[in-house]
Design goal:
heterotrimer; A alpha/beta (about 400); B mainly beta (about 110); C alpha+beta (about 230); A: about 400 residues; alpha/beta; Peroxisomal Thiolase, Chain A, domain 1; 5-stranded mixed sheet; 4-stranded mixed sheet; about 20% strand; B: about 110 residues; mainly beta; 5-stranded mixed beta barrel
């Protein structure tokens, strides 16, 4: 099995991309990655497109076939990968296996979503289709609702407060101010979202105990990477950033059937697999891009990924070691909370950010001594999780 | 559309409770199940008062939670009031509670036992 | 101007207590002063509203055009029993709302125009309008309609407005809905922000000048500069 490197990366703005179609978004991200890699596009033999909503929201299916046509990659093989919010992670995993196996040398993996064509209520309904149709969806459950039920138990068991969640939000907003691609570039303050009487109205309940500023926005956007065998990176005079390990695991579809509803088994298993394949432990991670669709998930994933013991991420929050300047930066990009969450693009955007960090190209939000990164792409409500370890080899 | 949420099952081999139905037992891989009844009462495991509901629902909020029936079945359902606490005893009502695209939808509505 | 002729064209006005200014702490920690605008300030406010007339996104063109016309009519004493409230952050105009008294007991909500986005300015100013009608103008009901479907649905759900069958809102358009005194007080705690009195220095500063951004900045602020190919 060959080692697999990330040769090129690119992304679009995340936000409300009025006037741009899903195809525009995917095409732009792909071209950025191809240009960044500096390769002749004819070398690309395989394309994976990560997308969840094309059929439902944009009346577009088989989007991978359309993409290769639009950006001149015919006759490359092309597939669309749909794994809910973990579509990006899954697409990368598939791309890595394609290169590692020796079957393909240059693979484009691109994720994208166009969610703002519909109202927030329809977008909420669309995302809720990942729940069980007869045991969950029918009740009007939303993903914030699932997160609210999770947070209800997690906060109680491990002693997290709304203040801890707010600190996570504030940190990620600050990080996004340094990220020119981020959807939400707005500094927020504890006074504005928790500590003043007006905070209750600014930061109204979303799904108790979660509030508005505990949730990521609904975003459009795309991100892409070019994968190749490690030993071919030198042809392009690029730093060698490898996907050193990947892992994926599933859990029960319904939240009710989890043995322990706050045990994110799939996160733990996926990360363990990724660490094992990379030959590392959690202690070797220098920074992480976690799937903070809700602030509680940054906390829970940091703990289930083994970066902190259960209940101890609050120490990181309180000490600031999770900030960019800290000893273990989490979500230097701003995370889903502020960078945004175009569902199919997120997993790829995490890898793009990690690559920029590992290359030393993250500008103002550069993590010092970034050598090894973890990304966690949380599909469903934790029932399908993909974890990646990215490492700078030289 | 016949919704598959009106019955709970027990694996004939290992006894693992399954709700809603599935083809293969998650614990032992067996494919034969027997139907088991729901109990009238259950215990609230977790819940959330949820705002910003999906398209098709015009309520300002809904309270949705997960309850465990006294024989081990666990199910999500609507809760009649947000004034509940984890661990509360609930009455489980099987009700016609909404319509989706012209179709009557039955499901669980839990109410606190006074 | 021939004032004798002008008086024939100016409508008689109901007595309208002025909206007492308040200050709202926003999510950024910054402060927005919400106060009644004076007629003299109308031309400045109109300058800020004018660029929105070209923006199709979120029906800014319809709302902007109408607000512009309403401000002009108010300024020139051709719109009866109107008020205008403005939101200012460090003197900068971030939003404007208006309405009027149809009768002493029935209010008409006209428009809500947010120039700064992402801070719930529109929501705060709309709530301030409802506060004005019910608590300071002492009215029993407010009639509401909307041009933007998203805002409207949000208000319908948040305030639990009553649909008024067969009642035409003077703006035309969609169905007319009503906020009653009861509904207002039920929602007040969770929707109406702000504290009074507005600190004297803050209010004096806000009254001293309404700063408006240039046209390009206003359009950028509302539409953003983002695009799939912008980088």
């Amino acid at each position: 099995m060959r080692n697999v490197a990330i040769l090129g990366v690119g992304m679009t703005d995340f936000g409300r991309l009025e006037g741009d179609t899903l195809m525009d978004i995917l095409s732009s991200a792909s071209i950025h990655a191809i240009d960044d890699a500096g390769i002749d596009p004819k070398l690309i033999e395989l394309v994976y497109v990560a997308n969840m909503g094309g059929g439902i929201l944009n009346h577009r299916t088989a989007i991978a076939s359309g993409l290769v046509d639009n950006i001149g990659l015919i006759p490359a093989a092309a597939d669309t990968i749909e794994n809910g919010p973990a579509s990006g992670g899954s697409a990368i995993k598939n791309g890595v296996m394609a290169v590692a196996s020796g079957y393909y040398d240059f693979v484009l993996v691109v994720g994208g979503e166009k969610m703002r064509d519909v109202s927030g209520w329809r977008a909420t309904d669309f995302v809720a289709t990942l729940t069980h149709p007869d045991a969950e969806y029918i009740y009007g459950i939303t993903l914030p609702g699932m997160a609210g039920m999770f947070a209800n138990l997690y906060m109680e068991k491990y002693g997290y407060t709304r203040r801890h969640l707010a600190e996570v939000a504030i940190k990620n907003h600050k990080n996004a101010l340094m990220n020119p691609y981020a959807h939400v570039q707005m500094d927020i303050a504890m006074k504005g979202i928790l500590d003043s009487p007006d905070a209750a109205i600014n930061n109204s309940p979303l799904a108790e105990p979660l509030h508005l500023f505990d949730s990521c926005p609904v975003s459009d956007g795309g991100a892409a990477i070019i994968l190749c065998p490690e030993d071919r990176v030198k042809e392009f005079n690029k730093p060698v950033i490898c996907v050193a390990g990947f892992g994926q695991a599933t859990d029960t579809l319904t939240l009710a059937e989890r043995e322990d509803p706050i045990d994110l088994k799939a996160v733990t298993m996926a990360c363990k697999q990724a660490y094992k394949r990379a030959g590392i432990t959690a202690k070797d991670i220098d920074f992480a891009e976690l799937h903070d669709a809700f602030t509680i998930l940054e906390i829970a994933e940091a703990e289930h990924a083994g970066l902190y013991k259960k209940g101890e991420y609050k120490k990181a929050i309180e000490s600031g070691e999770n900030k960019i300047t800290g000893s273990l930066p989490i979500n230097p990009s701003g995370g889903l909370k502020s960078r945004g969450h175009p569902v199919g693009a997120t997993g790829v955007a995490q890898a793009v950010e990690a690559t920029w960090q590992l290359r030393g190209e993250a500008g103002e939000r550069q993590v010092k001594n970034a050598g090894t990164a973890l990304t966690v792409n949380f599909g469903g409500f934790g029932n399908n999780v993909v974890a990646l370890v990215l490492r700078r080899e030289k | 559309m016949k919704r598959k949420n009106d019955k709970a099952y027990k694996c004939k081999k290992c006894g693992r409770v399954t709700y809603p139905e599935r083809v293969v037992c998650l614990k032992c891989g067996n494919r034969e199940f027997e139907v088991i009844p729901f109990t009238d009462e259950c215990t609230l495991i977790t819940f959330s008062q949820i705002f910003q509901l999906p398209w098709g629902i015009n309520d300002r909020y809904l309270t949705i939670g997960v309850c465990q029936f006294d024989n081990g079945i666990k199910a999500m359902g609507r809760i009649t009031t947000p004034k509940v606490k984890n661990g509360m005893r609930m009455k489980a009502n099987w009700k016609l509670f909404r319509e989706i695209a012209g179709e009557d939808v039955w499901g669980w509505v839990f109410e606190p036992i006074k | 101007m021939d004032m004798e002729l002008e008086q024939m064209l100016r409508p008689a006005e109901l007595e309208m207590p002025e909206y007492p200014a308040k200050v709202i702490t926003l999510a950024t920690g910054g402060q927005m002063v919400v106060r009644a605008a004076t007629r003299r300030e109308a031309p400045t406010i109109m300058k800020a509203v004018k660029p929105t007339i070209k923006i199709e996104r979120d029906f800014y063109d319809v709302v902007g055009s109408r607000v512009y016309a309403e401000l002009l009519a108010w300024y020139k004493y051709r719109y009866r029993n109107c008020y205008v409230l403005v939101g200012q952050i460090d003197n900068i105009l971030v939003g404007v709302v208006n309405g009027r008294m149809l009768t002493d007991k029935i209010g008409i909500s006209l428009h809500t125009l947010a120039i700064e986005r992402g801070l719930r300015i529109g929501a705060h100013l709309f709530a301030s309008k409802m506060e004005h009608h019910i608590e300071f103008l002492n009215q029993d009901e407010v009639w509401i309609t909307a041009e933007s479907p998203i805002g409207f649905r949000r208000w319908m759900i948040e305030y639990d407005l009553i649909k008024q069958l067969g009642v035409q809102h003077e703006l035309g358009g969609a169905d007319s809905f009503m906020l009653t005194r009861d509904l207002y007080f039920k929602s007040k705690d969770r929707l109406v922000a702000g504290s009074r009195p507005c600190p004297e220095d803050l209010l004096e500063k806000a009254k001293s000048e309404i700063i408006i951004a240039d046209e390009e900045s206003i359009v950028t602020q509302i539409c953003g500069m983002k695009g799939a190919w912008s980088k």
